[in-house]
Design a protein that fits this description.
Largest sheet: 6 strands, mixed
CATH topology: Lysozyme-like
Shape: globular
CATH class: Alpha Beta
Oligomer: single chain
Bound molecules: zinc ion
Radius of gyration: 16 Å
Strand order of the largest sheet: 3-7-6-11-5-12
Distance between the termini: 13 Å
Number of strands: 12
Number of helices: 5
């Protein structure tokens, strides 16, 4: 009846549907910091270009999260030179899904931020990067993969339910992602379908 992507499973903080590439950019969550929110981002390197790869075939964004980006490969990269960042998950334009940090660990995606009065969102959130831009719609397959992943996270970490937010919401002065083209209503509808079908 439904053609939606099946809900993946999470075992010991790892999503079974994602390719695993271990980022060095993480640390332990502080004690008593339960996973309580999901933060959606967009990223593209260089900005507004998709799918570009470094010489060894590694996607630029993956290279960034693995500290393998050649800062001299593009003028923009010099503006972020030395950045040590990560996200738990990255969803490419074609739906490819990669996990870089175990959900039980703290990824470095939010920066200075606050959610519902609580600072340091990295401590208690899961960060999901979509390959995208503030100026272009996301792909249907990205929404499908994202919705299935969120349903899996809700199941494994129930405190995240109803705490789905965007980077621009938790760091409004600094950040604009995931941007105006990101369709929250569509996403919420797709997540609800998963949960109701489960
Ligand atoms: Zn962001």
């Amino acid at each position: 009846m439904s053609t939606q992507t099946a809900i993946p499973k999470i075992y010991d903080g790892k999503l079974d549907s994602a390719e695993w590439l271990a980022s060095p950019n993480f640390n332990e969550r502080p004690k008593n910091s339960d996973i309580q929110a999901i933060v959606i981002h967009n990223i593209s390197l260089p900005p507004d270009e998709f799918g570009a790869v470094v010489k060894n075939g590694l996607h630029y964004v993956k290279a960034l999260f693995l500290n393998q980006l050649d800062w001299n490969a593009h003028p923009y990269f010099l503006t972020i030179k030395g950045a040590e960042v990560s996200a738990h998950l990255f969803i490419e334009r074609d739906g490819q899904l990669t996990q870089f940090v175990n959900f039980n660990d703290r990824a470095w995606h939010a920066g200075r931020s606050s959610y519902l009065g609580r600072a340091e969102c990295n401590d208690f959130s899961i960060g999901i990067e979509l390959e995208g831009s503030d100026f272009m719609p996301f792909t249907d397959i990205q929404y499908e993969v994202l919705a299935s992943v969120i349903a899996a996270i809700y199941e494994a970490y129930p405190k995240t339910r109803r705490h789905l937010t965007g980077h621009s919401d938790i760091a409004p002065i600094r950040k604009t992602d995931p941007g105006e083209y990101f369709d929250w209503q569509k996403l919420r509808g797709m997540v609800a379908q998963h949960i109701n079908a489960d």
